[in-house]
Amino acid sequence: MPEGLRVADKPGSLEGVRNDSGIVFAQNRPYVICIMASYLRKERDGEDTIARISATAHRMFDRMGRASEYGRVVSPNDTSH
33 has which bridge partners? Predict the structure, then answer.
């Protein structure tokens, strides 16, 4: 996640389970995300999965927040490459 991005989250865990729910205050497009990983052999696998899914969701909402009502806007601030 980008430096300075405001996030309010609540992680949780049980044996073999990791989850995180939160509000991400992305510019022009805040969103709520809830992720749960279960049946984990290694607890770290769940944390890595949550991080990858969260990063993918943020890239999508960041692009949507920079788009016009007519579609995607290519800007010098495009970080999707």
Answer: 22
- Which residues sit opposite 49 in a β-bridge? none
Q: Is 46 left (phi over 0), alpha (psi -120 to 50) or beta?
A: alpha
CA angle 13, 17, 23 (to 5 degrees): 60
pLDDT tens for each residue of 18-51? 999 999 999 889 999 999 999 999 989 999 999 9
What is the count of structural domains for the chain?
1
Residue reference for tokens 């992680």: 11
- Asked whether residue 74 is assigned to any structural domain, the reply reads no
What is the rounded distance in angstroms from the CA atom of residue 37 to the CA atom of residue 43? 9
CA–CA separation, 47 vs 62, rounded Å? 22
Has this prediction a pTM greater than 0.85? no
